[in-house]
Amino acid sequence: MARRIRVGTSWKMNKTRAEAAAWCDALLAAPRIDGVDLFVMPPFTALALVADRLRPAGVAVGAQDVHWEDAGAWTGAISALQAKDCGATMAEIGHSERRRWFGETDETVAAKTAAALRHGLTPLVCVGETAAERDAGAADAVLDRQARAALAAGPAGVALAYEPVWAIGVGAASADPAYARARIAELRETAARVGAAAPVLYGGSVDEATCAAFIADAGADGVFVGRAALDARRFHEIARLCAAAAAV
Ligand code: PGA
Asked: In the chain, how many domains are there?
């Protein structure tokens, strides 16, 4: 039987509400794809709009971050409670851009993961080594540390995204599928050691040309797409290619 896989995207800090609505309409106009669970992480400003449009079609919607508290004097932050109130069922936590630019640490990731679980949101926790850590042979140690911190918040219900920092963004190239396969296997072992069976997605410069290999060769449970999915038709095509790769 074909594996059921997940294909999702974060729009990061992109799209006005009108652009978000157009993206949703384009996705909804495209044929349904069997065997794939789709999810979208819009910016907070479009969260309710996207959830209203996509959730009836079975597409999950998540926040790109949540705070660890439910409410209080935390200027600029959004809580898991508020994200859920906008229709989110998932929360992305610990993306490397947030670790790098917004001071996210293993400790805040753990607290945010706990907050997401408390409100019934599926945390998608991003873990990944930098180029320097990879070159120092420390990739698996970094992944183990980051994943254990997140899984300590609740071994059940957490999903992981393996996102090597050096593979993300403009100018980067996706990881070699064999390299990703080894890291994903290590992450599964880390999860198993704490009694978790977390799905592990791959993210980092995924596009139409590379996506199938992460399903077929790297053994990922799905892919998490950035810039290639800012166009809904490309997101749909990536999902279609991943579904085909999972079906063989
Ligand atoms: P990218 O982003 O696909 O644009 O490299 C991936 C990510 O940050 O998850």
From this structure: 1
